[in-house]
Specification:
Blueprint: E1 2-6, H1 11-22, E2 26-31, E3 47-49, H2 55-65, E4 69-72, H3 79-84, H4 86-107, E5 111-117, H5 140-158, E6 162-168, E7 170-172, H6 187-196, E8 202-204, E9 216-217, E10 219-221, H7 222-237, E11 243-247, E12 253-254, H8 255-266, E13 273-275, E14 284-285, H9 290-296, H10 304-316
Parallel strand pairs: 1-2, 1-4, 2-3, 4-5, 5-6, 6-11, 7-10, 8-13, 9-14
Antiparallel strand pairs: 9-12
Helix pairs in contact: 1-7, 2-4, 4-5, 6-8, 8-10
The protein binds nicotinamide-adenine-dinucleotide.
Protein name: UDP-glucose 4-epimerase
Catalytic activity: UDP-alpha-D-glucose = UDP-alpha-D-galactose
GO biological process, one term: galactose catabolic process via UDP-galactose, Leloir pathway
Amino acid sequence: MRIVVTGGAGYIGAHVVLALRRDGHDVAVIDDLSTGTPDRLTDDTPLFVCSVLDTERVAENLRAHGCELVVHVAAKKAVEQSVAEPLMYYRENVIGMHSVLSAMAQAGVGKILFSSSAAVYGAPTGDLVDEQAVTAPASPYGWTKLMCEQMIRDVAAATALDWVALRYFNVAGAADPALADRGENNLIPRVFRAICSGVPPQIFGDEYPTRDGTCIRDYIHVADVADAHAAAVRGMSSGAPSAIYNIGTGSGTSVLEVMHTARRITGRDFDWDVRPPRAGDSPAVVADAAKIRAGLGWQSRHDLDDIVGSAWQSWSSRSEIPVAR
Ligand SMILES: NC(=O)c1ccc[n+]([C@@H]2O[C@H](COP(=O)([O-])OP(=O)(O)OC[C@H]3O[C@@H](n4cnc5c(N)ncnc54)[C@H](O)[C@@H]3O)[C@@H](O)[C@H]2O)c1
């Protein structure tokens, strides 16, 4: 299939491009390079450098590639930044989605696969979160993702649009050091940064009602996330119904468990600094991933050791980072 991945020069997008190419698809990328870098793409991957906000150019690029399906990954993703700069998030993510759907309509593209997020659930209650759980985003970022899902459903109700939305949980790791996440918003890169700088990593709260008092999250390897996109495209090609799917392992890991794994894998004997809990952090957010297993035959294959190990390999291979011994 001829596919355009928006945000394909970013961390997750580049892994998605790789997985789709492995499945034999003809993939081009639209990216404004605001956080992405072209070195994540092979030389033979067509890259259209433009913002998804530029509807005319997006439509032109979709036509130029003969696009049949858009994988819309491009977005801003930092929860705390979305609280400080909500208008920027609504512009990039929500108006961005409006622009992509408009361009698809102009270019006659009838299929979209969308990068959503577990942030749509806010602070869920219960052990596992399934796709029927109440959506109550706790940040402007989460709201932008929920609004995009709603926009897709509304357009699909009025047209013949086929769609899938994948709600990723905590994405981490790397399939290749060159494709790694270079941001430092998430726990695992924050831990590496702290231990390489010789300061104890901070953990926020150790009195949550969880097995060791720290927050529990569902860490999913980015290569598994990418494979879920390949499975979704196979499903869309063979007439699977439009749907929302959680992308997680179904198993939770506490912050302390991440610390112990990072100690073992890095070989660094570091301690951590317990800070007060952060507002809005829920005790546990773990996916029920049964729906995608049943519907598309996908399930995660990598465990926490693979995630932390691959992230550490990428981190320590970055020459600009001084790795303390
Ligand atoms: N990383 C996670 O844990 C996580 C979890 C849930 C959902 N997501 C979602 O996954 C997607 C990808 O996240 P990521 O971690 O790869 O982030 P990233 O910042 O590495 O990638 C985003 C890509 O989109 C591009 N981009 C941003 N705004 C654009 C615009 N207006 N026009 C064109 N390109 C634009 C960036 O240059 C970058 O290449 C986002 O939609 C994010 O909300 C990420």
